[in-house]
Design brief:
CATH topology of the largest domain: Rossmann fold
Largest sheet: 6 strands, parallel
Strand order of the largest sheet: 7-6-8-9-10-11
Order of helices and strands: EEHEHEHEHEHEHHEHEHEHEHEHHHEHE
Number of strands: 14
Number of domains: 3
Structural class: alpha/beta
Distance between the termini: 46 Å
CATH class of the largest domain: Alpha Beta
CATH architecture of the largest domain: 3-Layer(aba) Sandwich
Length: 369
């Protein structure tokens, strides 16, 4: 078997080699000539799997280490009999922990507790469910908006976008980006939505940049309809709006899903897709694991106050990458390519926690000693 893989897919090298010839390429090297003899492609979102790339090749499977698949011409693949797979949910925990860290950072800065605040989650799929778990465990009230799920499952447990605009102290978007159809999400957070806001909420976008309308968001922030902005996703990336950057409380270069754990999940899912499709066994699959964090044990006695919050921000603090982006916004893509991937809560063991602290941190996903 021949596999062509993007050379930036992490934790991959050496894993599939016992069962396949693996060629590693940069995204620029994904050319018709280089993929024509491949049985399978392992790709990322920067690798455009188009008709031009694939026509005349012997590629049977494309598997992407990403949740998105708009870099794959799925219509052509279906016509040509090429199976394609993405990695749904691989970085859902990572994005949720990014959002939670952002909320805690803003809350500490403002001197306001998050407990008791109402968060409206727009889009309750893989990521939205993880955001809900963290926020509910921490003592926040959760409103859920997901029209496709509400239609399929019934209205119970879901509210309209109007209810979120009216009642939420924080609004966070976790929808895919779709441009047409009844549930289109492009500019879902637009002028009409912002006009309905009643509580000057914090606004979070860690989904896709075009889910919000930049001009409408700028207008809402300047009119004080929104009190705080946490933005990981931007329209027209990497050419981001500098005025919006200046108005955000936390601004990052689309790295919310970039935990080491999420990256390993995506790689593992690609290899599992190859196993299933070609009916082979990859013996080294269990070696796809991220490295341990630099400080895998967190001692709560290090912190004089806000011990829970300081613990969470020890695992990931958005302020370092926020500062770097503000200083050099033109290096947006460089920051993404050279990001230090943090570990998720499950990689950390907590010591010297009180019973109450231990119970909460365990619910959030930390190990307790």
């Amino acid at each position: 078997m021949k596999i062509v893989a993007d050379n930036t897919v992490p934790y991959l090298k050496g894993i599939a080699e016992p069962i396949a010839e693996v060629k590693y390429l940069t995204s620029k090297e994904f050319t018709p000539e280089n993929v024509k003899d491949a049985d399978a492609l392992i790709v990322r979102s920067i690798d455009k799997c188009t008709r031009e790339l694939l026509e005349g090749s012997r590629v049977k499977l494309i598997t992407s280490a990403t949740i998105g698949f708009d870099h794959i011409d799925t219509r052509y693949c279906d016509e040509a009999g090429i199976t394609w797979k993405n990695s749904p949910g691989c970085n859902a925990v990572s994005v949720a922990q990014y959002v939670f860290a952002g909320l805690l950072t803003v809350a500490l800065h403002k001197g306001e507790p998050l407990q008791g605040k109402t968060i409206g989650i727009v889009g309750v799929g893989h990521v939205g469910k993880e955001v809900e778990k963290l926020c509910a465990a921490y003592g926040m009230n959760v409103l859920r908006n997901d029209p496709p799920r509400a239609e399929a499952e019934g209205e119970d447990g879901f509210v309209s976008l109007d209810v979120i605009a009216e009642q939420a102290d924080i609004v966070t978007f976790h929808t895919p980006l779709t441009k047409e159809g009844r549930f289109a999400t492009r500019h879902l957070a637009g002028e009409g939505f912002f006009r309905k806001l009643r509580r000057r909420p914090w606004f979070v976008n860690a989904s896709r940049g075009a889910v919000h309308d930049t001009e409408a968001l700028l207008h809402a922030r300047k009119e004080d309809r929104i009190s705080e902005l946490i933005l990981d996703c931007w329209e027209n990336e990497p050419d981001i709006n500098r005025e919006l950057l200046g108005l955000a409380a936390i601004a990052t270069p689309h790295i919310a899903g970039f935990s080491a754990d999420g990256k390993a999940n995506g790689t593992r899912m690609c290899l599992e897709n190859i196993e299933k499709f070609f009916r082979v066994k990859i013996e080294k699959l269990n070696e796809v694991v991220p490295p341990a964090p630099e400080t895998p044990v967190i001692d709560l006695d290090r912190f004089d106050e806000n011990r829970i919050e300081r613990t969470i921000l020890t695992s990931f603090n958005p302020l370092a990458v926020d500062r770097a982006l503000r200083e050099n916004p033109d290096r947006f893509e460089w920051f993404r390519a050279n990001y230090h991937h943090p570990r998720e809560y499950g990689a950390y063991t907590i010591i010297h926690a009180t019973p109450e602290e231990a119970a909460l941190l365990q619910r959030l996903g930390f190990k307790i000693q």
